[in-house]
Amino acid sequence: MTKLAHHLGCFLREHLPHERGASANTCDTYAYAFQLLICFAAKRMHTQPSLLEIDQVDAPLILAFLDHLENVRRCSPRTRNARLAAIKSFFRYLEYHDVSCLDQARRIHAIPQKRADEALVDYLTMPEMQSILDSPDLMTSMGIRDRAMLHLAFAAGLRVSELVQLRIDQLELSTQAAIHIYGKGRRERILPLWKQTATAIRAWLAVRASAGDPEVFLNARGSAMTRAGFEYILAKHAKAAAVLQPSLAKKRVSPHVLRHSCAMHTLQATHDVRRVALWLGHAKVQSTEIYLRADPTEKLDALAAAGIPNLRRGHFRPPDALIEMLRPVKH
Fold first, then answer.
1. pLDDT digits (tens, 9 = 90+) for 282-300
2. What whole-number distance in Å separates Cα of residue 289 and Cα of residue 309?
3. Which of 3, 44, 106, 256 is labelled catalytic?
4. Which of 159, 237, 260, 265 is catalytic?
5. Element spanning 172, H or E
6. Is 184 annotated as catalytic?
C-alpha cells in the first residue's frame, strides 16, 4: 500500500504549479479541497491524516464526502462539483505515477457531476453602486484606500484575486490610465480606467506607505490586502450605504457582485456581449451569456424589433337567458 501524503504533496507542489502552470489561487483552491477530504477520511477511518493510504480513498468514500459537503457543510452543487473536479484531477495524475490505482481511478472518474440550477446573476443598480462608492471616509487614509479599491473592483470588473494581487508595476497612470491584469488561466488583458477611478487610485498612492509589499492595496499592517479583508471592507461599506439606499439591505453584496454589476452596466451600454467577455477576461463568450438572461433591455429590444401579431376584432353575444336556465345543473 502507498501512503497518500507523498503523492498528494508532489501533485500540489510540483505537478499543478510547474507542469500544468496553475495559478497560485488554483493551487490554494485544490489544497483546501484536499484539506476537507483528508480530514473527513481520517475521522471516518479513525486514523491520522498522514497515515492514510491511497486505496482507502476509494469511490464510496468520495461519495460519502460529497454527501457530507452538501448535507453537513451546506455547500452548493457548484462547490460540490469544484471539489470533485480537484479530486478527479489528482487521480488522473496518479494514473501515470502509480499503476496500481488504475481501477480505483476509473471508479472515481465515473462519479458524475451534479447538475446545478443556473440562477440569474445578482447585480447592483447604479444608484446602489454610487452609494457604496460614496461610503468611505475620505478624511482617513484607510477611507481613501477603500474608495480606490471599490472604484477599481467595479470599474474594471475584477475578480477579487485579481484585485488583491494587483501590483504597482501593473498600473499605468501617466497618459491614458490603464491596468495590466494577469487573470484566470494566465490570460492577460489591459483595461483602460475611468478618470474618476484613476483619480481615486492616485489619491491612495499619495498616502500609501512606501515600504511594505509590492501590491497596490495594503492593510493596516502594511501587508498585501487579503480576500477576506476586502470582503470585510465591502460588507462594512454596503451596510453603511444601505441607510441611504434601503434596497441594498435586501441584497447580498459580495466582491463577485461588483464584477456582475460591471458586466451588466457594460452590456447595457454597448449591447455587445463580446465586448463584455473581453472586458471580464472570459475565455469563451458562452461564459458571458448569463448576463443576457438577466438583462431585461435585451428582451425589450427583441420585442420591439419583432412583428407584433394583430388580434381579430370580435363581438360578444350574451347567451339567451331561457337557454341558460334549461342547461343541466352540474353536481
1. 888 878 888 877 777 766 5
2. 29
3. 256
4. 159
5. strand 171-172
6. yes
Q: What is the pLDDT of residue 108?
A: 95
The catalytically annotated residue of 92, 184, 189, 227 is: 184
195 is catalytic: no
Q: Is 13 one of the annotated active-site residues of the chain?
A: no
The predicted structure's pLDDT at residue 143 = 95
Which long-range contacts (C-beta less than 8 Å, at least 24 apart) are formed by 178-181?
179/152, 181/156, 181/281
Which neighbouring-strand residues pair with 172?
178
Is 202 annotated as catalytic? Answer: no
Give tens-digit pLDDT for 151-193. 999 999 999 989 999 999 999 988 889 999 987 777 889 999 9
- Encode pLDDT of 90-134 as tens digits: 999 999 988 888 999 999 999 999 887 777 788 999 999 999 999
Give the residue from 79, 76, 86 showing the smallest Cα distance to 108: 86
Type of residue found at 69: L
Of the candidates 15, 80, 83, 259, the residue annotated as catalytic is 259
Q: What is the dihedral of CA 195, 155, 200, 165, to 10 degrees?
A: -130
Is 282 marked active-site? yes
Task: Say whether 291 is catalytic.
Answer: yes
